[in-house]
Amino acid sequence: MAYSGRYKVKNSSKYTGDPNNVIYRSMWEKYCMMYFDKDPNVKSWSSEEVVIPYWYEVDRKYHRYYMDFLVQWRDGKTSLVEVKPHKDTMPPKGDKRTKRYISEGLTYIKNQNKWNAAAEYCKDRKWHFEIWTEIELQSMGIMPKTLKPLKKMKPYRRKKTK
Fold this sequence. Notes:
By secondary structure, this protein is of the alpha+beta class. The chain has a single domain, classed as Trna Endonuclease, Chain: A, domain 1 (3-Layer(aba) Sandwich). The chain is 28% helix and 25% strand. The protein has helices at 27-38, 99-125, 134-139; strands at 5-7, 22-24, 42-47, 51-56, 61-66, 69-73, 78-83, 128-132. The strands form 3 sheets. Strands 3-6-7-8 form a 4-stranded mixed sheet. The chain has a two-stranded antiparallel ribbon with strand order 1-2. Strands 4-5 form a two-stranded antiparallel ribbon. The longest helix has 27 residues, at 99-125. It is globular. It starts with a strand and ends in a 23-residue tail after the last helix.
């Protein structure tokens, strides 16, 4: 289930765009917004303000790619940041004849098409294109470490009464 909502920008002077209409589409994006909002190294940031056309090789049509974040850093660096689960950055695994494999394969191809277009877009502008997964978010301290899964419990069995 996706976690989405409206983000209330705390430092509106840093946000380029409409600070009253900032939408996050995952908890990871919300953590990034909170990070950009309060980090003194961030000069300005925006969410889904940059739109990049890309060619999707499956349907052979152009589509629009809304970048998650445009970040301008105090050191002069500009980054386009995409936030994705690590599994979406890897080719699918498993039985190739399942619906799941085909669906994951199409998602992987679409992501590759988007990211190649974004990398070219950034190269033309001397910007940096970055993909942040849960691994990067945790190592950067943007997102808390995930909780360990609970141990599997033994099934409850009623004691027999005599």
